[in-house]
Amino acid sequence: MSLGETIIVLLLLISVNAFLALAELSIASAKRIKLNQMLDAGDSRAGVVLKLKDNPNHFLGIVQIGLNVVGILAGVFGESSFTLRFSTAFAAIGLPDGVLRESLAVVLSVSVIAAVFLLFGDLLPKRLAIYAPEPIACTLAPILRRLQRPFAPFLWFFGKVVDTILKFFNIHSKREEDVTTDDIYAMVEAGAHSGAVDRDEHHLIRNVLELSERAITSAMTPRQDIVSIDVSDDAETIKTVLANEPKARFVITDGDIDHAIGYIDAADLLARAMNQEPIKLQREQLQAFGMKPVLLMPDTITVLNCLERFREAGEDIALVANEYAVVVGLMTMNDVMASIMGRIVEEVAREKSIIKMKDRENAWLIDGLAHISDVKSLFDWDELPMEENYQTISGFLMLLLKKWPQKADSVIWQNVKFVVVDTEGSRIDQVMATIEAKQD
């Protein structure tokens, strides 16, 4: 065979090798989510790729048969032809006939053929397959499917052997491609870094996904901040509450917040006040005032659970109570929306609860009700002790101090010093956090 004919055969073999390598990696790398989207859009080729992915023994078998045949043919047509020519070239430069000349000719011939096959038949097509797996897989899968038909009995037999071996060693033969929350987090993070997802969209998606993990106690209005009207309050007291507390609704109590009997829309009370009607609540006339029953939710549920309860009940306000039926807070739909939107409104997801001190290096002033997840993000902490038992930095400090924190109390955790700056009643109002210099 002439040199030209040998080169043409090798180019054909390289093309076949490139096709098989391209098909193998593109089909294996193609994501089911994107393939299903393409199938829904009317691209029937995506269905062929999905069938091949469901039964990888068939397409891997035909690829390996093809690669092995190509390798054998390349050796038959290429090695002998190039070895002879390299040996002739070595003789022309004076290298004596013998084992050394023949060995050098074989090594050089094999090296040249292997290098060309590796570059153009393997590396280059695989790089292309990684770059755009789904479109390439859809283009090549129908061709590969037709090539399988003549070898179907062999592929079936070897597939069964492989399945039996994998089953014997208790190895799953199918790849799990379920998309988890962590996968979505990673995709959103990657999209934010690449610019495909802007900062606000990034925070919004993360906040929505966190609703199923965020405790209701981290989003509710704390008990001490609940504004209520008692059935024993006189008209002047109610007017003062209406004037000083611009709320849409007010919880109605009978003695204290643990004995809530419903809620009233502020608009109903204001309408009565403007019409010169009596606004003092009468127990026997609460329904006439427009009072509605208030939902009661446990403090152990998540914000997402709360949202589901709101939807089922057709309400958007609820009291949150602990296992002893003591009210610990008030939850409204506005609080749910604040959990989703709040981090978009403020810079870098802090909602002004964490403020960098301008006059001190590595120091922050933190609101006592700052969510512990924000504190973890600030100091790049992965886990905290007994994290399931608290939602705010106040709860975290109580755990570390093993007492109710008071003004000037301090504690160090992971090289960060926390100092209670101020308290409001029994609640921590502000905390100073400072990164301590590491000791040698």
In short, what is this structure?
This protein is of the alpha+beta class and 440 residues long.
Features:
single chain, 440 residues, alpha+beta, CBS-domain, five-stranded antiparallel sheet, four-stranded mixed sheet, 15 helices, 12 strands, 14% strand
Mean pLDDT: 83
One letter per element, helices H and strands E, the order comes to: HHHHHHHHHEEHEEHEHEEHEEHHEEE
Main sheet makeup? 5 strands, antiparallel
Number of domains: 4
User: Which parts are unreliable, with pLDDT below 50 for 5 consecutive residues or more?
Assistant: 343-351
Number of helices: 15
Strand content: 5-15%
Shape: elongated
Query: What order do the strands of the largest sheet run in, or round the barrel if closed?
Result: 8-9-12-11-10
Radius of gyration: 36 Å
In whole angstroms, the N-to-C terminal distance is 75 Å
Could you explain how this protein is built, in words?
With 440 residues, the protein is an alpha+beta fold. The protein has four domains: 166 residues, no CATH class; 30 residues; 128 residues, Roll (CBS-domain), CATH 3.10.580.10; 90 residues, Uridine Diphospho-n-acetylenolpyruvylglucosamine Reductase, domain 3 (2-Layer Sandwich), CATH 3.30.465. It has 15 helices and twelve strands. The strands form three sheets. The chain has a five-stranded antiparallel β-sheet with strand order 8-9-12-11-10, covered by helices on one side. Helix 1 runs antiparallel to helix 4. The longest helix has 37 residues. About 2% of the residues have low confidence.
